[in-house]
Structure to design on (145 residues):
């Protein structure tokens, strides 16, 4: 448990990380939306167990002449990690999710796809909406941009 004021700092840092991720041309995905939900939205609560945030990713356009799968594999190899081929194909999303989480134990992230299927739908507050508009929905929570 920690004070809600500390949670507000976690939220502010998260939003700044998401903006920094979106500004990086070397990353394959960006953050299209962040939604805060849970106990952080209750002004009467003094302490919270964690900061609950739903996130949605979008694919950035690959460099001219490069297929998206090639871009993912190239980025995965650059990471120096020992990955299976399937992990390489989704490395861009995995990398961005890790950067967003930043090993913050007080931060609980949920993919937007899963969040939107919660019953009942929790109250939430949009804390980041990217300027970049996703054009069409792709598999899961990643959208083409």
């Amino acid at each position: 448990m920690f004070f809600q004021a500390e949670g507000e700092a976690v939220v502010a840092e998260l939003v700044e990380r998401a903006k920094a991720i979106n500004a990086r041309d070397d990353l394959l995905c960006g953050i299209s939306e962040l939604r805060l939900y849970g106990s952080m939205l209750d002004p009467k609560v003094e302490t919270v167990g964690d900061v609950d945030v739903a996130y949605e990713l979008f694919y950035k356009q690959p460099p001219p002449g490069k297929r998206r799968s090639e871009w993912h594999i190239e980025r995965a190899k650059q990471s120096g990690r020992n990955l299976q081929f399937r992990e390489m194909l989704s490395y861009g999303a995995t990398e961005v999710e890790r950067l967003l989480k930043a090993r913050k134990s007080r931060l609980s992230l949920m993919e937007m796809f899963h969040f939107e299927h919660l019953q009942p739908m929790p109250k939430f507050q949009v804390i980041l909406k990217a300027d970049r508009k996703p054009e069409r929905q792709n598999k899961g929570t990643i959208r083409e941009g």
Notes: The helical segments are 4-23, 68-79, 85-89, 91-101, 112-115. DSSP finds five helices and eight strands in the chain. Residues 2-144 form one domain. The first helix runs from residue 4 to 23.
